[in-house]
Amino acid sequence: QTFHIAITQPATLDFQENSTSLTIHPNIHVLGGSSQTVTTATVTIDNTNFKQYEDALIYEPITFNYFTENEVTVTGSYNRSNGTLTLLGNATAEQYEIALSRVQYINKSDNPTDVDKTVNFEVTYSGDGSPTAVGSRDVNIIPVDDTPIPVRSGPGFSLHFDGLDDFVEVPWDS
Phi and psi for 94 in degrees, rounded to 5? Predict the structure, then answer.
């Protein structure tokens, strides 16, 4: 049986500097294995452009069939050093579809790298533990020119703003 992840959003998600976290795939679909148990899923920011102190994935655990004997919780654990979010819990493909649709991206930098990020999704069904469904989405990082605020004016004061190395020079009084 063939499994895959269907992406129904545009190929690229735009993330503007200073934005709140954005849901990566609100309409992700895990197809082909609805009757099989999913054991784990991983969401990874591709290492090519991953910046440990800028990029992060956010996930809040979700519980299905609340207060029944079939209660299932899909938990998440984020590894900041490599940009990998691991979701765990034996659940259906439909339940993982809901869990994956809640994963969010955030860039915490006030001067983010202007490079697209690729976020990869992998779902593993019970069996040999090999990922059996994969998908990805690019995140376009849009830096914002932060206008400097002068704190002093007058002779000897200079203001430098090029959108990259923003600083205010104020000479020391002798």
Answer: -65, -40
Q: Residue for token digits 């990874």?
A: 44
Question: CA-CA distance, 100 to 67, in Å (whole number)?
Answer: 22
Cα gap 128→39, rounded to integer Å: 11
Residue with the larger pLDDT of the pair 99 and 146: 99
- In this predicted structure, the answer to whether residue 64 has a pLDDT above a threshold of 80 is yes
Residue 87 phi/psi, 5° resolution? -100, 135
pLDDT of residue 1: 45
In this structure, are strands 131-142 and 12-16 parallel, antiparallel, or unpaired?
parallel
How far from 76 is each of 14, 31, 126, 128, CA to CA, in Å? 24, 21, 18, 21
The pLDDT tens digits of the residues spanning 132-171 come to 777 888 999 999 887 766 555 566 666 555 555 555 555 5
Of the candidates 105, 101, 131, 100, the one whose C-alpha atom is nearest the C-alpha of residue 118 is: 105
